[in-house]
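step=encode ok
step=design start
structure_in=
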């Protein structure tokens, strides 16, 4: 249980990049382990593959737009799934790299918003490409999984915002961020006509979204505001309400003092009035010693 507790703690205190990694790795590893165990006991799930759990029909993005009618969630869920170990390993390494650069200039909520919105945008471009481009239109129905498009959006957004930012790469040395961004974009452009055309077009769509996001942000429009507001709403919705602390009640002695002081004040004033009446009728010399002392004290 120590490892599980450590993972829970790391998840709670970690930032959005770490949480995204947990979600991606969890959705890749946990179903694979479960279905592998089921396979050992001869239990077969006909619509699932052991190496890509949940991705074939339910959560992957299909190039057939009709599929969106019965699984609209796939525009988001595909961006949290991967087809193999090397696929998820490379994407998570890129997410750490691009995510840390992005958070140098932007917030955690903005990163999450860019991740989700770019995934939706890239998914729509993917479907549109398979139904309009001659190169893909005749290739039949295809399915897509992977966080690559969303990660490209995060990387390109950072490069557009701060193109001269310097990054030190192992075995290469210090390069500017825009150099890294242009290499990835050119690779996607080259391979779009060679292999995995739909995937590379989705990467380019993610890059385009990252570019547009920063340009619109610089003009005063933050596209991720809606995502941040929705995130705050659901966070507050499921957050346990704060318990009202017990309040210690103290009796205020002031009212009692005032209640006591008021009669005392009335008595004093009456004594003064009586003495003044006596003075007006008989003169000051008619006062007794006690009355003179009282009047003297009150006068002070």
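sequence_out=
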């Amino acid at each position: 249980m120590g490892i599980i507790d450590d993972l829970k703690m790391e998840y709670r205190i970690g930032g959005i990049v770490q949480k995204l990694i947990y979600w991606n790795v969890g959705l890749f590893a946990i179903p694979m382990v479960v279905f592998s165990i089921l396979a050992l006991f001869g239990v077969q799930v006909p619509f699932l593959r052991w190496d890509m759990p949940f991705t074939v029909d339910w959560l992957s993005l299909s190039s057939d737009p009709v599929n969106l009618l019965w699984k609209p969630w796939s525009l988001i869920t595909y961006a949290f799934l991967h087809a193999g170990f090397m696929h998820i390993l490379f994407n998570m390494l890129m997410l750490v790299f691009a995510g840390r650069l992005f958070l140098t200039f932007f917030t955690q909520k903005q990163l999450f918003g860019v991740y989700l919105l770019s995934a939706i945008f890239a998914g729509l471009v993917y479907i549109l490409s398979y139904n309009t481009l001659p190169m893909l239109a005749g290739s039949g129905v295809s399915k897509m999984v992977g966080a690559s498009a969303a990660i490209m959006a995060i990387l390109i957004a950072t490069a557009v915002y701060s193109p001269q930012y310097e990054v030190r790469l192992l075995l290469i040395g210090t390069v500017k961020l825009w150099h890294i961004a242009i290499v990835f974009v050119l690779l996607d452009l080259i391979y779009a006509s060679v292999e995995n055309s739909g995937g590379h077009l989705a990467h380019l769509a993610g890059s385009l979204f990252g570019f547009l996001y920063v340009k619109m942000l610089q003009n005063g429009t933050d596209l991720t505001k809606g995502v941040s507001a929705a995130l705050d709403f659901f966070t507050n919705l499921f957050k346990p309400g704060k318990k009202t602390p017990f309040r210690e009640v103290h009796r205020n002695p002031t009212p009692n003092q005032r209640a006591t002081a008021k009669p005392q004040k009335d008595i004093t004033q009456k004594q003064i009035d009586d003495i003044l009446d006596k003075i007006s009728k008989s003169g000051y010399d008619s006062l007794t010693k006690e009355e003179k002392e009282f009047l003297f004290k009150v006068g002070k």
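step=design ok
step=annotate ok -> The mean pLDDT is 83.
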